[in-house]
Amino acid sequence: MAPALIFIGVFLLFPFVWVFIISFTNRTLTGLGAVSPSFVGLQNYLRLFDLQRWMRPGEFGNALWNTLLFVVGSAVLGQVPLGLGMALVFHRCRRALREAVFTLAIVAWILPGVTVAFTWIAFLDRDFGTLNAILTSLGLGAVDWYFDYPLLAIILFNIWRGTAFSMLLFSAALGTIPPSYWETSEVVGATGWQRFRDVIFPLIRPHVLTALILVTLWTFNVFTPYLITGGGPLFRSETVSMYTYRVAFRFLEFGRGATAAVIIMVINLILAVGYLVSLKRQAVYQ
Amino acid sequence: MRAHRARSFGKVLVLAAVAMGLVGISAWAQPIKLTVTSRAVRGGVNTQLVQWLEDVVFPAFVAAMRAQGKDVQVEFIQFGGTDEALKQQYALDLSVGRGADILGFDGFWIPEFVEAGLVKPLERVAGPAVWDWEGWEFIPLGMREILGYRGEVYGIAHGTDVRVIFYRRDLFEQAGILQPKVGIHEWQPRSWEELLDTARLIKERLPGVIPLQINAGTDMGEATTMQGWFMVLLGTGIHMYDFDAEKWYGQHPGILEALRFYKTVYIDEKLGDARMQLLPGARARTFEGFRDGKIAMLVEGDWFWRSVIAPGSEWAVPNREEVVGWAKMPANQPGAGYRGQDFVTISGGTGFILNPNTPHPEEAWALVSFAFSKEMQLEFQRIQPRIRCRVDVPVLGDPAMTAMAEALLPLTTVRPMFPGYPKISYEAQLMTERVVAGLMTPEEAMVAYKEALQAIVGAGNVLIVP
Fold first, then answer.
1. ipTM
2. What distance in Å separates the CA atoms of residue B463 and residue B422, rounded to the nearest whole number?
């Protein structure tokens, strides 16, 4: 036990407490605040939640709103239904085909972020991008993805990148359903939708919740989209993790960056508690 | 048996002695390794610096040191990211006591790094002997101040620079603004209105060409402040900082005038491309646009001439001397510029500083002073002619560069060298961004700037001029 506790203390609790303490100071990496930081009370928090300019581009409220749209769009509406759909479609498929599709999806998931980001930059470019070449050849006209729809661009990117994760989760969940259930439902002549509604979904419901929370947690913290849009233009695709990075590591204002990090940790904590509770329920259910 | 053991023990002793001897010799003969880094990549950004260092300075320095009986190895670490990313890297490296021995540094970073205790004056790093160097008497005080702060010198600048409007003669000829056969082959606007009129003419006659690009937005970082905001603001008669009152301008008719100029260019008349300024990689996009003949006029520093579009660079413009012209940036009205000038410009500079954490301060200084010897600086002039820090090193073989220096050095000014400047500079970039994107009117953007300024330096240090 002791080594585990020390490990947790050194690598988890200490940084957490440290970030929490710094969030009440004006510590910076350059300038006067680097040599003699002082406690500023709640000033950083008040600044972060300054409601007068809260939603102004570049402020925390704007980043939080973008994050919400990003998470709902890419995780709740994108990855989870798509992952579930793919898992269902290929669950009873021929093994070779299923393996091939799963492998491709997983490749999208495990490729290095920088490589993928670069590919997407090329893919979505207004003038030379592959997507616009396809759209133009279909007579749909080119779209200026990065400039007009930066948030949608990173949502699409994240769906592409993360669907494999929920697909794997759901695939495992479907694996827990005894084959006899499928066969019985086939014998009684249930349609695909009826089977899903009355047999499959009730059985995997706890997994859906788990997947939702896990994917949300993961999407909430993901930073790779920064490599594509840099949070811009005009902070229209800036999420809270990018905001924190910008304040702490571009402006080198650790105090203010730590404040944003504390808020993010609190949100993560809430999501994690939700995850644990759902796990517990699942255990009771089974 | 015993004898055998004793013999093998003796063998071990001998072996151990030999091994220790070898370690000792190798430690003694271990070459001193120096590392240098800067934002420069061979064949890419600032390729001339890499060529000069790796092909000329390093071999000569290693040979000179060997002549003194010292075995020195020098390595240049190429950095291809943005200036902002390099600054971030330095702050992180220096705060944990690491980093290359010699750092390529931008002058305006010095104050905030000094206040944080991350960099130290030359004489504190390498000892008072640095002042014995022969080069100092050829480096004027103004040049020392580029990498200086509060009377201390932290490094040596490669030189200084000026900012102008670069224009494409080929496009100007197509638009009928230049007519070499009639004898009109130079262009020089005398006011903003004349500059805008030229832009309007290009817009009308050359569809698809961006007439005038003036740096704006946060993506370009300091480039927006220096080549964009300052060049416009100085034309209204004020600076960002009042050096007499020792306060920052937070509200002033000049700020509004400057923002309205931006609005005219990017929003009202679409003489420039706002999208280009707002997307990631904005500055490289402008370089590309100018190289490809899609931008007719671009306000840039002389670095653009001698490095960005120079032969061998990524954005090289073939026949640079024939295709590219330059003009002074006019004030709003003749005589309405900063200090009553007709034309305005601003200067900065980068150079080398010593990392205070270097284990070899003496050798590091030896390398820096060697690189800034007259001989090595003349070599640098052959690769990249420019205004150098030494008065005994003239601009050689580049009449355009010489002319720019002569015309603009008398008119130039510098940034306010204070620890808070980089933050305020960012707020100025944000102010231009809000206007060129149409998010705020010039009035609203100025109010937001004023508020940010007050939060950074305190309300007492902000000038409000209605």
1. 0.84
2. 18
